Amino acid sequence: MISVFGNRKVSGSLWSKKREVLHHYNRLAGIYDSLYGEEQKSKIESILKLLNFGCKDMVLDAGCGTGLLIEYIAVRVNHLVGVDLAGESLKIAIERSRRLGVKRKVSLLRADVDHLPFRDTVFDKIFALTLLQNVPEPCETLREMLRVTKSNSQVAVTGLKKHFTKENFSRLIRRIGREYVFAETEEPHDIIAVVKADKVKNKYRQKEGIER
Q1: How far apart are CA 66 and CA 181, in angstroms?
Q2: Maximum pairwise Cα distance, the chain
Q3: Total of domains in the chain
Q4: Strand pairing report for 190-199 and 178-182
Q5: What is the C-alpha to C-alpha distance for residues 156 and 191, in angstroms, rounded to an integer?
Q6: What is the pTM of this model?
Q7: Structural domain boundaries, residue 173
Q8: Residue 91 sits in a domain of what CATH number?
């Protein structure tokens, strides 16, 4: 596991929330899969119905936690990169990649999703599962993920329904000027959307709504 942090300053109030989330997931790491594993796998399976992968794809799992996504796509893509602040969760993700025999196809970094340590337009797909309610500024987090996403690619995001309604989740995505589609799912806990990386060119459609 490699720790990578950018040089950009984070205000005290923003870091306070990040630190609270970090401690929460470090405490839960050992039991997270038993508590939420099936729920998370259901979200992944819903998203996979909307995405296609190629053997040359580079995929980012932003807020990867214990690495459940590794089980689904590591063997299908060129490389999977997972980033998370919670070191205890990353230890479990590392062990998962070893157990599944895909360690060479997976890189796991301790890094902040708001300050990703990658150059622009690197990834073909990005997953951000149950992440946006845990960040101080969800819009800025989405923008940062889109920065490292290639043109014509997609970002799969979910948000807990106890934090987001479908309407304000839509508004959040429209604020960054992207088209999106909601997953058709009976998932009781999360709203699931796949966001297109390219900006909407028609300003009227961007303002009025672009759900597909």
Answers
A1: 27
A2: 50
A3: 1
A4: antiparallel
A5: 11
A6: 0.88
A7: 2-208
A8: 3.40.50.150
